[in-house]
Amino acid sequence: MPVYNPPLRDMQFVMHEVLKVTDEFKSMPQHADTDVDTINAVLEEAGKFASQVIFPLNISGDTEGCQLNRDTHEVTTPTGFKEAYKTYVDGGWAALSCDPEYGGQGLPLVVNQCLYEMMNSANQAWTMYPGLTHGAYASLHTHGTPEQKATYLHKMTSGEWTGTMCLTEPHCGTDLGLMRTKAEPQPDGTYKITGNKIFISAGEHDMADNIIHLVLARLPDAPPGIKGVSLFIVPKFNVNADGTLGERNGIYGGGLEHKMGIHGNATAQIVLDGAVGTLVGQPNKGMQGMFVMMNAARLGVGNQSLGLTEVAYQNALAYAKDRIQMRSLTGPKAKDKPADPIIVHPDVRRMLLTAKAYAEGGRALAIYSSVLLEKSHNHPDEKVRKDSDEMLSLLTPIVKAFLTDNGYQAATMCQQVFGGHGYIKEWGMEQHVRDARINMIYEGTNTIQSLDLL
Amino acid sequence: MPVYNPPLRDMQFVMHEVLKVTDEFKSMPQHADTDVDTINAVLEEAGKFASQVIFPLNISGDTEGCQLNRDTHEVTTPTGFKEAYKTYVDGGWAALSCDPEYGGQGLPLVVNQCLYEMMNSANQAWTMYPGLTHGAYASLHTHGTPEQKATYLHKMTSGEWTGTMCLTEPHCGTDLGLMRTKAEPQPDGTYKITGNKIFISAGEHDMADNIIHLVLARLPDAPPGIKGVSLFIVPKFNVNADGTLGERNGIYGGGLEHKMGIHGNATAQIVLDGAVGTLVGQPNKGMQGMFVMMNAARLGVGNQSLGLTEVAYQNALAYAKDRIQMRSLTGPKAKDKPADPIIVHPDVRRMLLTAKAYAEGGRALAIYSSVLLEKSHNHPDEKVRKDSDEMLSLLTPIVKAFLTDNGYQAATMCQQVFGGHGYIKEWGMEQHVRDARINMIYEGTNTIQSLDLL
Prior knowledge:
- Chain A is α+β, with helices and mostly antiparallel strands.
- Chain A contains twelve helices and eleven strands.
- Chain A has helices at residues 8-18, 21-25, 36-54, 58-64, 81-90, 109-143, 146-158, 286-322, 346-378, 382-417, 429-439, 446-453; strands at 67-69, 74-76, 161-166, 182-185, 191-201, 210-217, 230-235, 237-239, 245-248, 251-256, 267-280.
- In chain A, α1 packs across α9 (346-378), α10 runs antiparallel to α11 (429-439) and α10 (382-417) packs antiparallel against α12 (446-453).
- The longest helix of chain A is centred in the last third of the chain and has 37 residues, at 286-322.
């Protein structure tokens, strides 16, 4: 049976002994009172949620996958996913680092970072449902009108509604300038949006009351290429003036992809058929709002592979201590047994130590990045905000590409530690490799990240 | 739709222009008359079998997988597999390089090598059914008694019966000295064998009339460890004196593994319940016969990854020429289109060229090794035989580990060329990665190969 033990001590080491995050927070009014004990106590509970609620659904969710009813366009997520999501919302986990103005708990982003590392270790496919919401939340929080914020941010903060990013179309992924989805202005100030999007993670599901799609599309008079792309909010259900849910909007799941991994997440083809949307930010400046979301997502994807590296390492270490096979090159170590545990063998140690180094180094980088993100938003000194933002711009593609390349290698090496058993589904290791593989591709392939870094 | 075009010209280049294999064959009486045209003509037909008969079953076989009926212990292979195998047997492909004394066509091993590269490109999971037979054939051909050869080799040569290697047990893979399966001598000279084997590729299936299991087990008086292991033939159906099939033997599939890949191959848990077997070679010297089989299998596994590297490369190349996205860094190349084909981008070229180099270099090494194997058996000069055998001993773990490490990387890179589409099953690329992953593990993990090389 696979294991996952939240690495609380390792997180505390990076936060409190290496980076001394609470010292950083002292200069920020909203976090000045956040102390070490509070952070540790929250993360201890977060670890319980990850390891006890969603980790047990990881293999079963992979095996069962998501089902689309093509008549109703409704998606059924794997058994237990919906209930786990209710536990997540009821526990206030969605709101952990969100703005108190919209009902958030206002904790530093580093707490959310560590929550998500643990949730990704436990169940990446499940974690993508709430995870995408954070990017949509950040984009609306930065670029939304007061009315849009009032309409959407409370429910996205609580997690009652989730978010998506609708960028990719069948013929354009990296090159969003080729996009064809159209937005027609309506007399009431809204837009009717028509087109086809693909690869929309958490694009349609049964876990939340509403799904807030952030959609890139072209206005009729838009210039060609990337400078003619605008950003729209397109909710699954229109929202009435009193905040209640109105009619079903013309945006629905047209199909689900059959994928190598993350089977528990509904990767949807999204059809927009005259769906009603409202503009976010300025016309033809949609990439500004989308980049807020995209950068949050890139850090999030790096964090996914950090989580998988950690859980793959933990399981490979446990197996290497338990499985006996051959003797140590330097003579028997477990003389009471017919063979030594395989952790005595140099190449097994090499693979384990590489994975451990990737997990610990990746964690330090990810936590450091979350502190930079915090400072870029909330530090009172403008220069600190600007410097933090610049450093984060440099580090974001590194977090995305370096952690995901390493995560795939680490998952592959930890699988190798299991020998033939690593190839068998019940041990859980091959799923980590399959899940880790997408992280090198989505939110911009790792090659694009390297161009961005240059 | 995935494509596969047999790389006949590339094979011819290595065989006839680089290695000049027919010059080598001139000194061997049994191959002295084998000319370039014959080899090329056979491989052209072989390519048709691979690309037209088994390639179309690759994705469907992965999706459907194998089913075990737990009452009858019968395995149903994916739709079309059985019919394709009949075509293979009827076409004489099983007998291509087998000994004419047992009905073989007696062609040089290099022809079989190239046949198997193409079959592995087309469908690794299917190809493992006949592939395992070659190792069992080689082991019996070298170490079997005249009676055993007369009983089994004709049908294994024709492909009417297939073979397996039953080594691994739940608690021992690499460390075969820990083996527990027991063989009890019977008054009639046979043995009753009892134990549990796992990870038996092609261990039970519906494609052939009989399955000839080569089983490692311990005699009652066997010394501990690897020096107390003996090799036995244990057929699925006992064979009557007249060559017809007799009673069902006490060896059957107890379960099938759910794996990361090679879903079309039945990876069986094999239960031996007093199964009747006959000894191959000397008591307690079972590893001699098993190593003949194992070394054939290790070359075969390297060849599997060569095949996957080639097919992954072909598809990535085709996609990179077709998919348009962004402009070349040196200015537009396809000015009539809204973007350039992605093959213009440096990192896409890097990935394609790496895969191409792995395919072409791997092919040269694999073909060279097959010529060495030929010379080690059939060269009239004893010194050439010995030198060839020694060089092959050096190269075998390299073919296994280097080609399979490279194959996994190449499949992963070729998948990356497809961006998000590489993660979707219908494009076929993610299956290549999943299938390639096992090759680094089975027939001795790549780490064990490196120890063997040292």
